[in-house]
Amino acid sequence: MVREQSSPIFAATLSNGLGVLLKEDHTAPIASFWTWYRVGSRNELPGTTGISHWVEHMQFKGTDRIAKGQIFRDVSRVGGTLNALTSQDWTAYFETLPADQIELSLSVESDRMRNSRFEAEEVESERTVILSERQGAENNPGYSLYEEVNGIALQAHPYRHMVIGYETDLRQITRDELYEHYQRFYQPSNAYIVAVGDFDTHDLLTRIEGSFGHIPSEVVAPRAIRVQEPPQPGERRVTIRKPSGVPYLRMAFHAPAAKSEDLVPLLVAEAVLSGGQPMGFGGGGSMGRSSRLYRSLVATGVARAAGSDASITIDPYLFQIGVTGLPNSDLPRVEQIIDSELQRLREEPVANDEISRAVRQLEAQFIYSSEGVTNQAYWLGQWDIVDRWARAETLPDEMRAVTADDVQRVAQRYLVEERRTIGWLVPSARSASGTLNEPEVNAALFAPTVWGIDGPRTSGSVAKGSFERAVLPNGIPVLGQDRPASRSVVMRVRVPAGSTRETDSESGLAHLTARASLRGSANASFEEINLRTDELGSSMTLDAGRQFAEARVRCLTDDFAEMVERLAQTLLAPDFPFDEVEKVKAEQLGAISESDNDTRSMADRLLRRGVYPDPNPLGRRVLGVRELVEQFDREALNQFHRRTYRPGGASIAVVGGFGSFDRALDSINRAFGSWLEPAEPQVTLDLARTSKSEERVQEAIEGKSQADLAVGMATISRGHRDYYALDIANLILGRLGLMGRLGAEVRDRNGLAYYAFSQIEPRTDGSLWSARAGVDPGNVDRALMAIVGEVARIQEELVTEEELHDAQSYLIGVLPLALETHDGVASTLLALEEFELGLDHLTRYPDIIAGITRAHVLDAAQHHLDLTRRVVAVAAPM
Q1: Are 286 and 277 spatial neighbours (Cβ–Cβ below 8 Å)?
Q2: Are the C-beta atoms of residues 466 and 483 closer than 8 Å to each other?
Q3: Chain centroid to CA 832
Q4: What is the pLDDT of residues 168-178, one digit of tens each?
């Protein structure tokens, strides 16, 4: 064994070539264990594209010792979470779980490193699943453009094809080809382990050696990659015409590999163009409203979203710019504006304050990415793949050393017209209905590179910290957790100003009001606010859902007091400038057009309207009705804000390294303590009306490959005495392991869908239960029958003792994982407040769950999942 000590990360190499990186983090009693393989789509031969991703799927089909599906069950049983990811350069498997259960990771990963079975029937079953996954990607117009531009920009290197692979290859790859790929690349000398968490380094290293040290390497030697992309002789272009709610533009330039001295200056150039982007496995919120692309394209109302991406890869790849247009965006004008910004970057040195602002954002994102052991392990592992793990620590120093000359140099070298590929997606048709049920869809910018209270203050203990609660003079409860070792803070503020507060003539007004509140407040302009926020490396968002408008600030510790004040101004004193309101309105109309073209959004909208028929506002689309949104003006926003943005019903959660709860409370009280109830009476709408009989609704959308199916019904409130039993029933039905019984029946056994799961959306006045699946259009009825059959089965027979025990163990064990990040804790605190559970709820929770019996689960399923009132919604290709 070769060992290397570099504080705080311990590096070692076992005698069989397996690398090991260990980092102790005792913030919470959890650990994240990652097994990385140096294989991805980069290593695939022509005719076998997608094979690395397919092998990843097969790793869950069992070994001689581990039964099919057992990995998910075992990890869920101890309250852990797991996933697998494939990119161009790597495949990774991780489990984040209670630290005292890390032996499970050692057992699973050491066994499937060499012993996975590739049974012929399982290969064929998974072929259908992966084709469904491919169809789901094709449903996204932005993905189609991404694939075309990628394939044209790169002519020789295997980076040119998508990780998921081409459909023609996926239909022909054989079992033997999959197994040979597995045998060649899954071996210790081509792998390494990264673990971060609450463990002793020496003890864990000894256990890793015991589990992995005996595995031999190089049964079949991995192939070397010798392909080099030839120089691009001139500009390349592609135009796609297909049904889409809005136009898209993508521009790709050849860019250097991770080891190049030009990479970090290019990352800074990217931050100048579009702001500091999230790092790690989650990272921070997106920044960059003061960036050049945002100011020239989005702030001016030319496009709905714009950004850039400098990929970090083993071989030279692409620097890409993506723009999501508005329904009437002029793509030639968009392209001209991008050209102007790139020309300015090439010809004019970036001002020192702009460089400093870009670097500050990148440094802040680096700090945010260190929240939680999962993020840290991902970041270390990714850098060890593309270069060396030490750069995961030295990157901030490299970024601080970048000068304006460096940025101009890389812009002149890489961001030039003769080395670019431009893609346009021009909508050829527009579907007539459908809406988005989340605040914003922006997935088209970059297709993913990876596939998978009143009274005195009270307190409650949890994990290795404590929750605290106090009440401001105006009655707003503030909940918090101080994390002294952290250098960042997250604060969330909830106000009951969601779409359920709209009248029938106000559909979409809550969303518009929330978004427009960010466009200027307390006489500070949108540009001034953005400039200062980006200077601090902070982010501030405000979105409206169905029940709440929720604001979120993420900042470094030293900037907390200032960002609290800015957030209060945004919530309490928005200016709603006329020009900015019109721009936000155009963005909202663009989002409606995009969602009209999205099958998953359509199925969700149809389901909710069916479960909550008029006049129940819960069935209303959050983005609203196009004809109404077009008519809203500044005065409508002012009236809605005066009526709904009030301290009554508001709540605040703050988590991070703010020194002490008292210190954070002082800042919050100065900003929010004077907030008073408005004179306007609160509008109370009836949320009680729900579907009374079975209903099926279906809509068709042009240009799609996959159908989305949603089945649902109204059910009991979060405070109902049967809620915990129903939650366990739902967990067994559609969540536990690989999406529960639904996943086993619909996805795994019948190969009908890439995803099939169920969920409960809890509320204080009633909840929505639903099951979802993405299926081939010809399999919709079979998938529906399978879902209904599984619901009926859980109503007709007791769940097994093993299922109940697994569900209880998961719910109890997963608590520390939910509190891994600042954002996770803040969301938990707001939920505790919303449902009046008390700060000691997490302490009492294990006993509550342990008291649920099989009979309780059966009774809850029988009484609260009423199939005679189910609504079936289908959004399918035309």
Answers
A1: yes
A2: no
A3: 23
A4: 999 999 999 99
